Amino acid sequence: MTSQRVFRIAAIPADGVGAEVVAAGRTVLDALAAASHGTFAFDWTEFPWGCDHYQRTGRMMDEDGLETLKDFDAIYFGAVGWPTVPDHVSLWGLRLKICQGFDQWANVRPVHFLPGVLSPLRKAADTELDWVVVRENSEGEYSGLGGRNLSARGPGSEVAVQSALFTETGCERIMRFAFDLARTRVRRKVSSVTKSNAQQYGMVLWDEVFTRVAADYPDVETESVLVDAMSAKFVLHPEDLSVVVASNLHADILSDLGSAMAGSLGLASSANLNPEKRFPSMFEPVHGSAPDIAGQGLANPIGAIGSAALMLGHLGLTDEAARLTKAIEATTGAGVLTPDVGGRATTTDVTAAVIDHLT
Ligand code: ATP
Ligand code: MG
């Protein structure tokens, strides 16, 4: 008898559609485990953190939250934010606290054109394209450095400074991660994104480190593109992309663009990785809490289910990850689509269809 592998997963649905899409992903993962003939199972613990928790307790998560989470094998996250709580409070109080507390410095956001899904930029549903945005997730523009009221010049003349922090170590590790990822792909190419013509300190350091790291990967093709030009390139020549490495802010914006190109924000998956595996990594859809559609059963669960596939890969269940990705493609290919991508299916319909295609 072989022993069963049990993965301890912390589920944090948090706000809005987070609850609906995390429930969808859990159902799919449990169906996969049930079909594994006892090879593996998921042991879930759900945490009620988020904006409701904040209204009740004044905190987005428990004070000892990181301590509680640190022994889990992975974190499966929904979405954070609600109109009743300022965005910077909710984001820094939960999601960014976990990302930074667990040194999840690499944020991987695949852009994947799914069968059967059109978008304003994709007129033929059989165009097959995919690339990956690798986002520096620990520093850059989201370092929280700066301040307000730096000068007291009287009413109407407040000054605010928002600094971006770039360290050689931070740049180098995210670039090596991007190059290593490129080596696993059919197209071995890394595109680095900057704005070094206008920002002469951090972005120039980024460029210099990129050139240096690239020298260690002679088998990988490279290019360095300004972020404005890269936005145009996403739209005009996405077939020329494989791995795109960018700073925290630039990659955040570019990955939303990529997911909109693929058809909807609701389709996009992401992994916040602590590559050293000293701490748990966190898997979440790219989208936010979507207050406009929350609680109506309309949320597209594909982003969250795709994030579950990324989690499977991270846990070493590579075959299951591939199987789940195929089931997602079969579902959209069969036209089972939520309203954001032009269909009439509910969150539950899509989830059930994915499970059907697993077996
Ligand atoms: P955040 O600041 O957390 O990134 P946001 O303000 O950018 O959030 P979202 O909450 O992601 O915005 O919503 C942006 C738009 O995308 C909304 O119109 C929302 O309904 C839609 N959307 C987001 N997620 C989904 C989903 N899973 N299914 C369908 N539509 C979605
Ligand atoms: Mg957003």
What would your notes on this structure say?
The chain folds into 2 domains: 1-117 and 263-359, 3-Layer(aba) Sandwich (Isopropylmalate Dehydrogenase), CATH 3.40.718; 119-262, Isopropylmalate Dehydrogenase (3-Layer(aba) Sandwich), CATH 3.40.718. The chain is 38% helix and 22% strand. The chain has 11 helices and 12 strands. The chain has a 10-stranded mixed β-sheet with strand order 2-1-3-12-11-4-5-10-8-9, with helices on both faces. β1 (5-14), α1 and β2 form a beta-alpha-beta unit. α1 (18-34) crosses α9 (302-314), α5 (168-182) crosses α6 (202-214) and α9 runs antiparallel to α10 (318-333). The longest helix has 17 residues, at 18-34. The two termini are 24 Å apart. The model has no long low-confidence stretch (mean pLDDT 95). The structure holds adenosine-5'-triphosphate and magnesium ion. Adenosine-5'-triphosphate binds at residues 17, 21, 81, 264-266, 287-290, 292-293, 299-300, 303, 338, 340.
Order of strands across the biggest sheet?
Answer: 2-1-3-12-11-4-5-10-8-9
CATH superfamily of the largest domain, called what?
Isopropylmalate Dehydrogenase
CATH architecture of the largest domain: 3-Layer(aba) Sandwich
What is the chain-wise order of helices and strands? EHEHHEHEEEEHEHEHEHEEHHH
Strand content: 15-25%
Radius of gyration: 20 Å
